[in-house]
Amino acid sequence: MKRLMRSNVCHLLEQAAESRGGAAALTYKDTTCSYDELWHRVCSFASGLAAIGLARNDRVAILLEKRIETIVAIFGTAAAGGVFVPVNTQLRPQQVAYILADCNVSVLVTTHERFAELVKQPDGCASVAHVVLVGDGPTDVDEIATQSFARHDWASLLDPNVSPRPQPVTIDLDMAAILYTSGSTGKPKGVVLSHRNLIVGGESVSQYLENTSNDTILSVLPLSFDAGLSQLTTAFNVAAHVVLMNYLLPADVVRLCTKHSVTGITGVPPLWIQLADQAWPIETAARLRYFANTGGRMPKSTLDKLRQRFPRALPYLMYGLTEAFRSTYLDPAEVDRRPDSIGKAIPNAEVMVLRPDGSRCAPGEEGELVHRGPLVAMGYWNDPGRTAERFRSIVGQEAGWRTPEVAVFSGDTVVADEEGFLFFVGRKDDMIKTSGYRVSPTEVEEVAYGTGLVRDAVALGVEDPILGQRIVLVASPAGDLPLDQAGLLSAIRLQLPQYMVPASVLEMSALPTTPNGKFDRVSLRQRLAS
Questions:
Q1: CATH number of the domain residue 418 falls in
Q2: Is 76 part of any domain?
Q3: Which of 53, 49, 107 is nearest to 76 (CA)?
Q4: Which of 4, 109, 390, 402 qualifies as a cystine partner to 132, CB 3.0-4.6 A?
């Protein structure tokens, strides 16, 4: 069999269909489709997008829970030469509307219910030319929707008679996806990933996890999260079986692992803390080949519990940033020696610890984590300023005869030991890492101000053994009366997903400021810590 050149991420699926067409590719609830079936659906969706005029690099937003149609839309968009934008279903309609407008989405794939809420937003679908609706839904959508876009039923868009495989017009350096993550300015920023980023990511991660076609991988993380999307590319690279799960309760994870003989799970610390306390059937626990952690440091006590629960499973402690898809992992053989380490660079990547002048730090010296290689993203969508800050060449490493190479400067402080193992120290910026999510303090503060209940507000992250960090809002009341903390939190819950809602509010009559008139976040952190 002639091996295809992988110039488009959809080729991961196509090659899996050619090598193991009859094998299980995806399972959602009680439905399983083979690689042949999945690839045919992807081709049908790509054909449907071409029929409605999708052009190269057009953005297709996918606002769906995890289901087979979601995966078809992602890879079908890539096969058609478009750029897929997976949107977290926990976001509020106004946040979704911002994303659609920011990257000028031309096609939206969603459900009737979510569409009905979205079109209520001012300019919620202003850039959208086509809406593809999945499943059944209310009939009043026609009454509230404008006529500025065309509506399509999912089944009617697919071309069931498609026969030739798509011939994507892309090359591997072209845009493939935009993943939105919170930004320090309060608005989410879109990280642009190339086909090469996604393909190499799948190859690299499946290599160090030692995935094979015998694996069954539980997809429990959101697909809008780089680690969640990585579950797909990792599995499809080796033609493994993926079980899709929309997380509800930790007991459901155990149930699905038992039902589908799951061999690998990647999660974030809050999830692992819950799973470590579950009652796992002996056969289910023994079947798990590995468990992997990302999105924050796993507590040592949780790691110890998991290793007792899964005596045959290899623990992989990982670190990643969306701007480089994946970055480091700790070899399971090193976990007993250095359980606090984030390991070393993944295959086909180099991770360095640099001083501000670009020189390398000595062992034991703190510096910024800098990642170079084919997983470095293309930059931030339509934001040259922030792209220039984070994506830049390494001082002193440029040869005069070649074009400059761009690395990603993480903004995270790390330190390496004598053997090159990395240890996370902290973040340079004010981003809050909670429940595996990066949360912008400014976005929380803006919503607090919008309630009209506060005069001043600062959102801070406080270390938490379960969440990684919990959000504390320090605020002063807008009037003379005491701050209505319950009313404030209730109003915030209406505007933000639960993981962005402050765990508590600290009321102060006035917030301290620096000589420059800015809120003194350093002194506030010290107060909270004490």
A1: 3.40.50.12780
A2: yes
A3: 49
A4: 109
